[in-house]
Amino acid sequence: MKKDCVFVYSDDFQNYKFHDEHPFNQLRVKLTYDLLRTMNALRDEQIVAPRMATDEELALIHDRDYIEAVKAAGQGRLSADIALNYGLGTEDTPIFPNMHEASALLVGSTLTAVDYVLSGKAKHALSLGGGLHHGFRGKASGFCIYNDSAVAIKYIQEKYQLRVLYVDTDAHHGDGVQWSFYDDPDVCTFSIHETGRYLFPGTGNVNERGQGKGYGYSFNIPVDAFTEDESWLDAYRQALREIADFFKPDIIVTQNGADAHYYDPLTHLSVTMKTYREIPKLAHQIAHEYCDGRWIAVGGGGYDIWRVVPRAWALIWLEMTEQSNISGNLPKAWLDKWQALSPVPLPLEWDDPEHLYSPIPRKTEITEKNAQTVEKALYPIRNHRSNIKQSL
Amino acid sequence: MIVEQIMKTDVITLHPNHRIIDAIQLVKQHHIRHIPIVNDENHVIGIITDRDIRDASPSIFQANEYIEDLQKPISTIMKTDVITGHPLDFVEEIAALFYEYRISCLPIVKDEKLVGIITETDLLHTFVQLTGAHQPSSQIEVKVPNLSGMLSKVAAIFSQRNINISSVLVYPDKDEHYKILVFRAQTMNPTGIIADLKNAGYTVLWPNLPGVSS
């Protein structure tokens, strides 16, 4: 039976857990799942279980000795010195029991999403357990062990020979995925994030455009700290439209980190739920305009797991399944169930109130600077286009 | 850091009796802007820059006139008062030299022979590495009183959290009684270290956007 959309989910996503105080908390996937189930927006037949990624699949991106190190670390067999060389056992990515299995399941979840879409069993698929865009070939970084998105893109290339557009709206630069395909003209990466001036990882500058044959296929828009909805969305809409038109992808993979929100404790952007309504909307349109609907969406960052992530991620699914015209109150049953566990009062409605924060003093300058950044990022495409016009 | 560690050793050179047209081709072919001129003993006896070449070339409006001039030897246009450096010079000194003499290239000479070259681009690249901006990290700026021992006190707080520091810069503050310590720290979650710093009484600028506080 053909399902239009699938939601890859398992309670085992919770096994990817560093420790109780760590900001990366997969409870947010469960909160999202529960929100959608409570409101009857996610039916039994739309839910599919993730599979584990095999070692061969992980090795599409990751070094074999790194995979072995992760396995050994998860079984307590890796010395601290060696672990540190692989970025394991740090403040960001502490070692935890069975970390290989937990991480390989997140990769497998995104691969499951890919299989559903590319075998034609679904148009769109959502893998909220994935989106671990900082993982490097041979090193853990920024809460990420294996890079599910990079593995999935390589898998799509090897198995289906498609051209992939990767769109990363996490507040942090999608460095792991960018570097994995930096010299590949068949994968176009586009990341919009808070400038690396202060924020991790520090890369993602406009002038990172790719290298060799891949030059011109990496796009970065670093927006200023304190950027608000209007300016952020303006950058996103202009860039994604023009990049899609330039690259003409066969499939899009979107990474949906929800940490650019004003409430997020790790970043300094000031967007609200307005932005999280719009992100999947445009991605959905692009998927239908260029890719015959083929769209894989994954999760990512998001560290206000109570007030931001469940609403933002539920909106991706609601957009995919064309139920996004929802507003007003969140389901009471969901609020009643989770409020007791939340350290902060849960929001009562889908949308944020006006005046969520006090006005940003340098808004005009920030908006102006972001517009210039967009201009610079898209310059090669726009320049190319006007050259073609002249020669006609 | 000393010059030897960052200089390029495969230097593209010409002899004084090479023609100007040879220099034009070399500059285009290798995307370079400076060519040291050496004699048979590999002694630096002159230097030409892309600007010297441009001065000697016909205007684009008269591109085909006087082209025989480009057959003249380089010795007719090269500068002979060349500022050179030594492999053991400090990179900081070289940077000051570039700034003071408004030059952007320095042939490096040892035993009177040319052994390397440093350009503005090499210096900039070194600077990028000094800032640590090429490795995944967060930037945290701490405003401290301009007193001895502050850096070690602040760095100790990072070390208690087991956070690796990839670079430290010390900037002057507008108020000379203060300094700004700029750390690039290998963590995506600096909230803990920031809380520690604040508890210890320091002013943390994360991010530092004048007129706006987070």
TrEMBL record, chain A:
Presence of the UniProt keyword Nucleotide-binding in the record: no
InterPro entries assigned to the protein according to its UniProt record, in alphabetical order: AcuC, HDACs, His_deacetylse_dom, His_deacetylse_dom_sf, Ureohydrolase_dom_sf
A Pfam family this chain is assigned to: Hist_deacetyl
MF terms (GO), sorted A to Z: histone deacetylase activity
Residue intervals of the Histone deacetylase domain: 22-317
UniProt entry keywords in alphabetical sequence: Acetoin catabolism
Origin: domain of life: Bacteria
One GO process term, biological-process aspect: acetoin catabolic process
The UniProt record lists the keyword Disulfide bond: no
Pathway: Ketone degradation; acetoin degradation
Family designation: Belongs to the histone deacetylase family.
PANTHER family to which the protein is assigned, alphabetical: HISTONE DEACETYLASE HDAC1, HISTONE DEACETYLASE HDAC1-RELATED
Name the record gives this protein: Acetoin utilization protein AcuC
Organism of derivation: Thermaerobacillus caldiproteolyticus
TrEMBL record, chain B:
InterPro entries (UniProt xref): ACT-like_dom_sf, ACT_dom, CBS_dom, CBS_dom_sf, Diverse_CBS-Domain
Keywords of the record: CBS domain
ACT domain sequence ranges: 139-212
Top-level taxon in the UniProt lineage: Bacteria
UniProt keyword annotation of Metal-binding present: no
UniProt keyword Acyltransferase, yes or no: no
Pfam family, one: CBS
Domain CBS residues, every copy: 7-70, 78-137
PROSITE patterns xrefs: ACT, CBS
Database matches in Gene3D superfamilies: 3.30.70.260, CBS-domain
PANTHER family: CBS DOMAIN-CONTAINING PROTEIN, CBS DOMAIN-CONTAINING PROTEIN CBSX3, MITOCHONDRIAL
Name of the protein in question: Acetoin utilization protein AcuB
Native species: Thermaerobacillus caldiproteolyticus
